[in-house]
Amino acid sequence: MIRKPAVAGQFYPEDGKKLRAAIAGFSPDVAKKKPALGVLCPHAGYVFSGPVAAEVFAGIEVPPVAVILNPSHNYHDPPFALWEGRGWETPLGEVPIHRELNAGLASLAQVTKANRVHEGEHAAEVVLPFLQYHRPDVQIAVICVTAGASRLSLRELGRGIASSLGHAGADDALVIASSDMSHEQGRDALDTVNANDPPAIAQMERLDAEGLLRTCSEKGISMCGALPAVAMMESVRARGGEQGKLVRRATSADSPYGRGDYVVGYAGMIFT
């Protein structure tokens, strides 16, 4: 079973040549790319968050294997839904599933095989073209992290991902957390986003998963992928990572298509 594109032509160009050109136009020239254990990448329409996502992937050595952790905008369970089909298709072609890694992730106690959770969900799909652009031969595994995930299970998932990568011979794999930052409405939306996002980013820079959840709770930060970010950070720490670095921050108000009374924040981060 192939996961067909659900938001091509809506979130990003549905024509392969136009999609490749869009990513190229967003991507800066980086003289020296660096290896990374994890990244935080936004998942809005490319006219809003494309430059942030592009700068993240332009600055790293994209390895041959990637794990995408994304939130669900439609489901609250199971906590961790693994795609078990053959691959994912985008206008740039098909991205195969890494079978050995997927089998390892499927064996984790907290993970459930559940393709239905991925159908129609855009949060992982919009990340894939950036991977394909920089690494055409990339293989993936995709887990949708829903609101049913507990703090303990997120830690266990992160550690389980790290262990599964080792067993699959993918020690240099990239773990991607797909997430936008604050979503705010009203006259003061932009001011609220600009006030709320930096404290959350600071916790991620310290690789402090508990601090991220606490900050989001205390400040009411509507970071849609906070749970995937926590699992990603736990996997990074389990693999010896020590910090996150902010690459670029933006808001939907920066785009000519943005609305002043509804603003979403975006952050691109690299974890090493």
Task: Please provide a written account of the structure.
- It is a single chain.
- By secondary structure, the protein is an alpha/beta fold.
- It has one domain: LigB-like (Protocatechuate 4,5-dioxygenase, Chain B).
- Strands 2, 3, 4, 7, 8, 9, 10, 11 and 12 form a nine-stranded mixed beta sheet that branches.
- A hairpin with a 2-residue loop joins strand 5 and strand 6.
- Helix 7 runs antiparallel to helix 8.
- The chain is globular.
- It starts with a strand and ends with a strand.
- 53% of the residues are buried.
- The model has no long low-confidence stretch (mean pLDDT 97).
Keywords:
272 residues; alpha/beta; 8 helices; 12 strands; 22% strand
Topology:
Elements (H helix, E strand, L loop, with lengths): L1 E2 L12 H11 L11 E4 L4 H13 L6 E7 L8 E3 L4 E4 L2 E4 L2 H8 L5 E2 L14 H7 L4 E7 L5 H17 L6 E5 L4 E3 L3 H17 L3 H11 L6 H13 L5 E8 L10 E10 L1
Parallel strand pairs: 1-5, 2-9, 3-8, 3-9, 4-7
Antiparallel strand pairs: 2-12, 4-8, 5-6, 10-12, 11-12
Number of strands: 12
Helix content, binned percent: 25-40%
Mean pLDDT: 97
The CATH architecture is: 3-Layer(aba) Sandwich
As residue ranges, the low-confidence spans are none
Please identify which CATH superfamily we are dealing with: LigB-like
Termini separation:
34 Å
Strand content: 15-25%
Q: State the helix count.
A: 8
Whole-angstrom Rg: 17 Å
CATH class: Alpha Beta
Element order: H for helix, E for strand? EHEHEEEEHEHEHEEHHHEE
Question: What is the CATH topology descriptor?
Answer: Protocatechuate 4,5-dioxygenase, Chain B
**Which word captures the global form?**
globular
